[in-house]
TrEMBL record:
This is N-acetylmuramoyl-L-alanine amidase. The lineage of its organism: Bacteria, Pseudomonadati, Pseudomonadota, Alphaproteobacteria, Hyphomicrobiales. It comes from Methylobacterium bullatum. Residues 1-25 are annotated as: Disordered. It comes from the Bacteria. Its EC number is 3.5.1.28. Keywords: Cell wall biogenesis/degradation, Hydrolase, Plasmid. It is an enzyme of class 3 (hydrolase). CDD domains: PGRP. PANTHER family: N-ACETYLMURAMOYL-L-ALANINE AMIDASE AMID.
C-alpha cells in the first residue's frame, strides 16, 4: 500500500481514497500546518462518522480524514481547508487549534462500561479484549480506577502512521497531539489505548515498525539534552557522539527524543536540536 497527496487530496495506490465531503469547513488552512490532531469517533464505522460530518443534523463538526478499523480511509475535508475537529482548544500558546492543525478521526468506541460482566460501548457493542487503563486526565465517568477502552487494531494504527508521515513531509507538520492534549478536561480522545509515544516515533523516526535504530548524535563534542525545545531550557546531560535517540515529537527544529541505552531500550527523554543528528 502506498499513499500520496495530489491537489490536497489523499490517494492510495494511485487512486483517490473515498471522498465524502463535509460542508462544515472554515476557509483556508495555512501551510506549513503546525499540528496533526488525532481523535477517536465514538462511532461504529468510518463511514457512519463521515456521513455524520455531512448531515444537516450535525451542529458543525468535521475532520480531514476518518480511518476505519480495517485501515480503509475516507476524506471529508481537503488538507488546505480548515476542518472543525478541535473545538475549544489550546496548545503551545495558541487557541483554536482548528486553524493550526489537520484532524484525523479513528473509528473507535473510546471508553467502555461494564454490563453483565462484559465491557460494552455506549451503544451496547461488546468489546471482547478491551484495553484497561485510567485516562491521564481522569476518566469521563469520574471514576478513579482503570476502565475499559476499545483497542486500536494494528492495521488502523499503521495506516494512520503512514499517512501522518506523509502529512509531515507535505505540510511541514511539527507535532502530533491528541484531542485530550489540546482540550484536556472535556475530551478523552485518543485515550490510553492509543500509544501516542510509539505513534510519534513511527512518524518522526520514519520507520514502519520497531526494528532498527533511530538517529545518532553526530557532533564530536556531544549534544546537550534539554528539558524543553530551546536553548533557554536547562540541560539534563551531555549526550556523547554516537548516542542513539528515538524521536517522539517535534517543535520546529527541536526534537523530543528517547535516549536509547546499549540494549536499545529508552533510558531518558528530553529535547535536542535536529541539526546535530544523523
Amino acid at each position: 500500500m502506498a499513499f500520496a497527496i495530489s491537489a490536497n487530496q489523499l490517494r492510495r495506490d494511485g487512486k483517490p481514497v473515498t471522498s465524502l465531503p463535509s460542508p462544515y469547513t472554515g476557509g483556508a488552512l495555512p501551510s506549513p500546518t503546525r499540528f496533526l490532531a488525532m481523535h477517536f469517533t465514538y462511532g461504529a464505522s468510518a463511514r457512519s462518522s463521515a456521513e455524520w460530518f455531512q448531515s444537516k443534523d450535525n451542529p458543525g463538526s468535521s475532520a480531514h480524514l476518518v480511518i476505519d478499523r480495517d485501515g480503509s480511509v475516507i476524506q471529508c475535508v481537503r488538507f488546505d481547508k480548515v476542518a472543525w475537529h478541535a473545538g475549544k482548544s489550546t496548545w503551545r500558546g495558541l487557541s483554536g487549534l482548528n486553524h493550526h492543525s489537520i484532524g484525523i478521526e479513528l473509528a473507535n468506541w473510546g471508553p467502555l462500561h461494564l454490563a453483565g460482566g462484559e465491557w460494552k460501548s455506549h451503544t451496547g457493542v461488546t468489546i471482547a479484549h478491551p484495553h484497561i487503563a485510567k485516562h491521564k486526565n481522569g476518566n469521563p465517568n469520574g471514576e478513579n480506577c482503570p476502565i475499559g477502552w476499545e483497542p486500536y487494531p494494528p492495521v488502523q494504527f499503521q495506516v494512520a502512521a503512514e499517512i501522518a508521515r506523509l502529512l509531515v513531509k507535505t505540510y511541514g507538520v511539527e507535532e502530533i497531539v491528541g484531542h485530550d492534549d489540546i482540550s484536556a478536561g472535556w475530551k478523552w480522545d485518543t485515550g490510553p489505548a492509543f500509544d501516542m509515544a510509539h505513534f510519534r516515533s513511527l512518524v518522526f523516526g520514519g520507520r514502519a515498525d520497531n526494528d532498527g535504530v533511530g538517529l545518532t548524535v553526530d557532533v564530536a563534542e556531544g549534544l546537550n539534552l534539554r528539558t524543553g525545545p530551546g536553548t533557554t531550557f536547562p540541560v539534563l546531560r551531555l549526550l556523547p557522539a554516537g548516542t542513539l535517540v528515538e524521536p517522539i515529537e517535534r517543535d520546529g527544529r527541536w526534537l523530543g527524543v528517547s535516549v536509547l541505552n546499549a540494549q536499545g531500550q529508552p533510558s531518558q527523554t528530553g529535547w535536542v536540536h535536529d541539526h546535530y543528528l544523523s
